[in-house]
Amino acid sequence: MVSFLLVYATGEGQTTKVATRIADALAERGHETTTVELGGGGGADVDVEAHDAVLVGASIHMGKHQKAVRRFVESHREALAGRPTAFFQVSLSSATDEGAAEAAEYAEELFERTDWHPDRIGLFGGALRFSEYGLLTRFMMKRIVKENMPDVDTGTDTEFTDWADVDAFANDVAAFVEGRLGVVPPRAD
C-alpha cells in the first residue's frame, strides 16, 4: 500500500470533484490517500514527509493558479523532490483542442516559477457554473464563452471534465508510484 497526499485548491468546486475522483481511484487500487484542500496559508502545516507520494491540483482562473498552490510547492519543494509527484490542472482551456497549448503553458509557468518538476501531469477540462456565478462574473463568463466556445449554451451549467481521462491519469500515477517504490498493487478478484 502507498500513502498518497493529495493537496489542491479550487475556485468553484470542479477541482474538488476531480481530486475526489482521483482519491477514489487510488483507494480502489488499495492505497491510502489523505486529501487536503489548501487555504490561504498554502498548506504550510501539511506533513509531506509522512507520505510516500504527492499529487498537487489547481484550477485556472483569469490565467492564474491559486496562490495557495504555488506557496505549497515553494514551501515543500525539497520534500516534493524526494518522492514521486504528480500535478493536475482544471481549466476551461483544457476543454478544447485549441486551448490545450494554453493550458500546458499555465502548467509550465507554475513549474518554472517554483522550480518543481512533477513526474506526471494531467490537464482536465473544467466546468461553467452560470447558476452559481454572481451577476458580474456571469456577465463576464458569458462574453468569454460566446467568443471562445460559441456552441456552449450560456443559459445552463456545463461540465467539460473527461472523467475517463481523470481515471486514466489516476491509474497512471498509481502504476508509476507502485513501480518506483516497488509496491505490488492488490489483485482484483
UniProtKB/TrEMBL annotation:
Pfam families reported for this sequence: Flavodoxin_5 (PF12724)
Any one Gene Ontology BP term: heme biosynthetic process
UniProt GO molecular function: electron transfer activity; FMN binding; menaquinone-dependent protoporphyrinogen oxidase activity
Domain Flavodoxin-like, residue spans: 4-168
Naturally occurring in which organism (per UniProt): Salinirubellus salinus
InterPro entries: Flavodoxin/NO_synth (IPR008254), Flavodoxin_CS (IPR001226), Flavodoxin_dom (IPR026816), Flavoprotein-like_sf (IPR029039), Protoporphyrinogen_IX_DH (IPR052200)
Protein's UniProt name: Protoporphyrinogen oxidase
PANTHER family membership: PROTOPORPHYRINOGEN IX DEHYDROGENASE [MENAQUINONE], PROTOPORPHYRINOGEN IX DEHYDROGENASE [QUINONE]
